[in-house]
């Protein structure tokens, strides 16, 4: 018997968590946060502890597994995490320990969690590093395998759960980047082999299932970035803001800047966390990135150099969503000893995630930047999620018996269903539309 039970990631983007029943055993895939609600909840708090778990659940920040744990907790044999984004792993310290089972992920994803739990006194988290291409047995009837995939954070993986009914694949999140600038391209060969073994069910990220065409490669952004940096006049200081976990992007910005004879500085707490994890897991070389400055005095000290030598620096920083407390927010609200002017350029290597709060924050940031006279370049970015045509390729590659779109609201999931219809799937027969907190048994 295969049964899928959804917790989060099916009503809106974020808070991913799904339970997969294989007879009497259960594997949980992902344990993420609703990032929008998390930002709201955190407010000005510096630190969250395990005591916050009930209110995190009550406020919808993390999945509600209370009844499930009481009823089925003992059946859970493993928790598998696909990648280190907050909407896939952030809830682990709050929910995972009580299941007393291995928590399996690639080395970078494990490192991200280790950094998150550093001060949380979690003694019984059984973190298991599993490299892609290897298997890990979690019960008599279940083996877990991670398959290399591209996304927008290092070491992302598809989860393949080997069972006597076939392979259950959980593909959340992914893009098909055949020219990645960091790491390997998707493991198509292994996917072909898994198809030959027989894929019983595919649960798949449909965040961009409503976008026509293909999602472009990260190598395209590298070219775009080089072009924009070159076009910025030699006497201007460049501030580039991007996702802190997008290590490939950060690496590219550093390499391009050095090639164009600019020094690099990196500012911001989250930059520090993700970059340190990447150095510790040897994803990037220690010598590539300068020390990340996180404290105000430290940043002010470095900004003096930037001010004295216009045109000589590229500053990589946080704040692309206009979020409060990030570097760009503090810079534009006068919290650092540096005043932006027409002598500076700001490049957004990002896109605004369209939630009401982000849109309003980003608008405020835009106005502040415009009034200071800086040169602005926006959306120097491509998505980390596969589009409609990519989804068709993946479905054809894996040919699952059952197909379940995930990671989006009803619109995205419906778009995922439409794509599958073109390939012969039928809603209710072998294509299934699930929302949060639903379950389905699949023959
Ligand atoms: Zn992701």
What would you say this structure looks like, in words?
This protein has helices spanning 35-42, 53-58, 66-72, 86-89, 92-95, 107-117, 188-197, 218-231, 247-259, 269-280, 296-308, 327-332, 356-372, 388-398, 410-422; strands at 2-8, 17-22, 25-29, 76-80, 102-105, 126-129, 135-139, 142-148, 157-163, 166-171, 199-205, 237-242, 263-267, 292-293, 313-317, 344-349, 375-377, 402-406, 439-442. The protein folds into two domains: 2-214 and 384-442, 4-Layer Sandwich (Metallo-beta-lactamase, Chain A); 218-377, 3-Layer(aba) Sandwich (Rossmann fold). Helix 6 packs across helix 10 (269-280), helix 8 (218-231) packs parallel to helix 9 and helix 14 (388-398) packs across helix 15 (410-422). Strand 7 and strand 8 (142-148) form a beta hairpin. Helices cover 34% and strands 22% of the residues. The protein has 443 residues and is an alpha/beta fold. The longest helix has 17 residues, at 356-372. The N and C termini lie close together (7 Å). The strands form three sheets. Strands 6-5-4-3-2-1-19 form a seven-stranded mixed sheet. Zinc ion binds at residues 83, 85, 151, 173.
Topology overview:
Layout: E1 2-8, E2 17-22, E3 25-29, H1 35-42, H2 53-58, H3 66-72, E4 76-80, H4 86-89, H5 92-95, E5 102-105, H6 107-117, E6 126-129, E7 135-139, E8 142-148, E9 157-163, E10 166-171, H7 188-197, E11 199-205, H8 218-231, E12 237-242, H9 247-259, E13 263-267, H10 269-280, E14 292-293, H11 296-308, E15 313-317, H12 327-332, E16 344-349, H13 356-372, E17 375-377, H14 388-398, E18 402-406, H15 410-422, E19 439-442
Helix pairs in contact: 6-10, 8-9, 14-15
Residues 83, 85, 151, 173 line the site of zinc ion.
